[in-house]
Design a protein that fits this description.
The complex is a heterodimer. By secondary structure, chain A is of the alpha/beta class. Chain A folds into 2 domains: 2-220, P-loop containing nucleotide triphosphate hydrolases (Rossmann fold, 3-Layer(aba) Sandwich); 222-299, Alpha-Beta Plaits, CATH 3.30.70. Chain A has helices at 43-50, 72-77, 94-105, 111-117, 133-145, 163-178, 190-194, 214-221, 236-243, 267-276, 291-299; strands at 2-13, 17-28, 32-36, 58-63, 66-67, 79-82, 151-155, 182-187, 199-204, 207-212, 225-232, 248-254, 257-262, 280-287. Chain B contains 12 helices and no strands. In chain B, helix 7 (133-160) runs antiparallel to helix 11. The longest helix of chain B is centred in the middle third of the chain and has 33 residues, at 94-126. Classes of the chains: A alpha/beta, B mainly alpha. The A-B interface holds A 13, 48, 51-55, 72-74, 76-77, 79, 81, 83, 85, 87, 89, 91-92, 100-101, 103-106 and B 2-3, 6, 10, 14, 17-18, 81-83, 85-86, 88-93, 276, 278-279. Chain B: Keywords: Membrane, Transmembrane, Transmembrane helix.
Chain lengths: 303, 279
């Protein structure tokens, strides 16, 4: 069974704004899925449809095998949500927050144990209004974990967090995933999902432009590695010869370093071609395309 | 049902944690003490219905103002702040949120108005003034009924508004229409237009008479007339007079039906608007 299944999901706001255009997506049970895209791509709209805050214009969304609209209450009973912005009740203590969630989900979790997991046990009886942003986020993460959810939805979970907070979120995502919980993790920063996600989907202008593993995406994008060769005696003829090799592009040469974008397998051709043209190669290195570049390639960012 | 009451309890306890509401509570207490003191200091001439009557009259205004101002932002404000999404990411339904909030606010406003009238009665009795127990009870019950109408109107408004500005404008409208009796101007305006933009002469047609009597405060007054007639004077400032001949639409049973509709329909219409809204 799919934990999340979107079919032709489309959402228009009014006449002019189209947030989602026919999104098809299947997230498997037990998977950690990274939902990526720049701000405004439609990530929040998708999550809002999963939770029935927003109704699709057309298409369907199923969560945990249930209709996201008609069975929304049951969906939310079995789902833990870390909403964007992690709003808390200033006048309530951390314990009150958890008790409220526990009662609504009709479970018997121990508030203290939950706060222990998110590293907030020592603040259990303090009012959330006095919490730092990081503590508020830990609290809302704790609330999301109540009732051992089958699905955990994290909407931009790292916004405004310090590095140790980001690390803790990752740790908890891993723990939950190893218990069989499906995790749906939205972010506009690729490096945050890269480390934890089994697969990622990239959303751009309301369309899902790619769904794959991180490695798969890298292959599919066909992004080339960058090769740097340190060599003496490089002639213009040598550069032209390198340029004309198949799988090699963007060749530049300056200060004794030749730089080129190369496909897998073409890199030794570059080195041998240079040597054939009388250059002496003293060192070379390749650098794979960073995921950030890959992400940019898909989302059209940075253009 | 459990989750509905959980929302109700939360709404009520949120208010108790809100210090600003303590000032409002103190005002209700002071008004109650004032009424009780006044009746007590005129103990020889006071009648047993004085305290209930004045108490009900005071609550019709003060209670309604409090009901509107404490309720109109209660759902749309959460919608604007994002709190509504937090609640609805838990297994609450929109039905539970709207009706639970309605019950929570109602409990709060009823506690204040009931407390105020009860304090007035108790102080008057202690000071030796006569206080009719049945009239006091009737005043409390009818004040509560009136509060239910205004909380329903305000929560319905709050649930049906897309932003806090509109809800605030609507709340102001509620004051004008019901407490400042703009409601009764509607038939006049309609007849003016129907009459070719000149003021009509002759007696009001039946529909205009019915319109006046289905105003919620008039409807409450018409119910009171059948139960504790001495108390009707309390609402004289907010309801039109009674027509001659006691037609059906001023009968207590008709009034009770109208009051019930005013309690059930506004909050339900607001809920229906929210039910289909994108949050």
């Amino acid at each position: 069974m799919a934990a999340i299944e979107l079919n032709g999901l489309t959402k228009r706001f009014g006449e002019s704004v189209t947030a989602l255009r026919g999104v098809d997506l299947r997230v498997n049970e037990g998977e950690v899925f990274g939902f990526l895209g720049p701000n405004g791509a439609g990530k929040s709209t998708t999550i809002n449809i999963l939770l029935d805050f927003v109704r699709p214009t057309s298409g369907t969304a199923r969560v945990l095998g249930l209709d996201a609209q008609h069975d929304s209450q049951e969906v939310r009973r079995r789902t833990g949500v870390l909403p964007e912005g992690y709003k808390v009740y200033d006048r309530l203590t951390a314990r009150h927050h958890l008790e409220f969630v526990i009662e609504s989900k009709e479970t018997n979790d121990d508030p203290e144990a939950v706060l222990e997991r998110v590293g907030l046990a020592d603040a259990i009886d303090r009012k959330a209004g006095d919490f730092s942003k990081g503590m508020k986020q830990r609290l809302t993460l704790g609330m999301a974990l109540v009732g051992d959810p089958d699905l955990l939805i994290l909407d931009e979970p790292s916004t405004g967090l310090d590095p140790s907070g980001v690390q803790d979120v990752r740790q908890i995502v891993k723990e939950e995933a190893s218990n069989g919980t499906t995790v749906f993790f939205s972010s506009h920063i690729l490096s945050q999902v890269e480390a934890v996600c089994d697969r990622v989907g990239i959303l751009r202008d309301g369309e899902l432009v790619a769904v794959d593993t991180v490695d798969g995406l890298r292959d599919a994008a066909g992004t080339q590695a960058t090769l740097r060769v340190v060599a003496d005696g490089v002639t213009d003829g040598a550069i032209d010869a390198v340029q004309s090799l198949s799988g090699v592009s963007s060749v530049t040469f300056s200060d004794g370093v030749l730089t080129a974008s190369v496909d897998d397998g073409a890199k030794m051709d570059v080195v041998t071609t240079l040597e054939d043209h009388g250059a002496s190669v003293s060192d070379f290195e390749t650098e794979e395309a960073s995921l950030e570049e890959l992400f940019m390639a898909y989302t059209g960012g940075g253009q | 049902m459990n989750r509905l009451l959980q929302i109700t309890r939360k709404d009520f306890t949120d208010a108790i944690r809100d210090r600003q509401l303590y000032a409002l509570g103190a005002l209700f207490l002071l008004v109650g003490l004032g009424i009780g003191y006044l009746a007590g200091s005129n103990a020889e001439t006071a009648s047993g219905v004085d305290v209930p009557r004045i108490g009900l009259g005071a609550m019709a205004f003060l209670g309604s103002v409090a009901a509107i101002s404490m309720s109109y932002n209660q759902i749309v404000g959460k919608r604007a702040s994002g709190e509504l999404r937090v609640l609805l990411s838990l297994p609450f339904s929109r039905t539970e949120v709207v009706y639970g909030t309605f019950l929570g606010r109602l409990a709060l406003v009823v506690a204040m108005t009931t407390g105020s009238i009860a304090v007035a009665g108790a102080l008057a009795a202690v000071l030796g003034a006569p206080v009719s127990g049945s009239a006091l009870l009737a005043a409390i019950v009818f004040a509560a009924g009136l509060m239910a109408v205004f909380v329903s109107l305000s929560i319905g408004l709050s649930a049906g508004s897309v932003n806090t500005t509109r809800a605030a404008a609507g709340a102001f409208g509620l004051f004008i229409v019901f407490l400042f009796r703009l409601w009764e101007g509607v038939p006049v305006a309609v007849r003016y237009v129907l009459n070719g933009f000149s003021f009509p002469s002759g007696p009001s047609p039946t529909w205009a008479m019915v319109w006046r009597q289905i105003q919620p405060i008039a409807a409450v007054r018409n119910v009171i007339a059948g139960v504790e007639p001495d108390l009707t004077v309390a609402l004289v400032a907010y309801a039109p007079g009674l027509p001659d001949g006691e037609p059906y639409y001023v009968e207590p049973w008709f009034g009770a039906t109208v009051v019930l509709a005013w309690i059930v329909l506004p909050v339900t219409l607001g809920y229906l608007k929210l039910r289909t809204a994108d949050l």
